[in-house]
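Give me the fold.
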Amino acid sequence: MIATAVATFGQIDALINNAGMSAQALFGDVKADDLGWYEQLMRVNLWGSVWCTHAALPYLKQTRGNIVAVSSLAGLFGVPGRTAYSASKFAMTGFFEALRAELKTAGVSVTTAYPGVVATQIRHHGLNAAGKAAGSSGLKEDNAMSVEECARLILQGMDQRQRDVVMTAKGKLGRWLKLIAPARVEAMALAALKDEVKPS
């Protein structure tokens, strides 16, 4: 894919790691035989970004380009019912934070984006406790951000070479609250779940 892009356009100015899978399941509901889909989620959400970034990196160094990692608020706060998804997004956050420091002298920027709930069907296609398509979202989606607004904020953050783009007011508040009142942030995360999927 990277070789084709370079052959077609002559260079790579930006890489946006946006491909991902969702999942929703209480960890206690996942049978040991079904834990393999946790690895599958990590292969897509983390390793997909790692492989693409590794392949594009020599070209991005040539252009002093931009890397974007599309994480999630679940990559800043552990979200109940989304242990696998949160783990994969926390892993992305750590990987790209370390890579940002490594690339500072090369002039390649690394922006990590943290969307909240975006109006897509990703959660409907995400995996459930049995590793099958969930068919519905376990999150409240009344105030979901539009795809267009999410993309605009990501591109703006990339163009401005921002380190992080936290896209919601609750996300920004939660980031600071986590330092001084972590139990309050856990309560906020639990409140984001639909009542029928909350742990009893």
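The longest helix spans residues 36-63.
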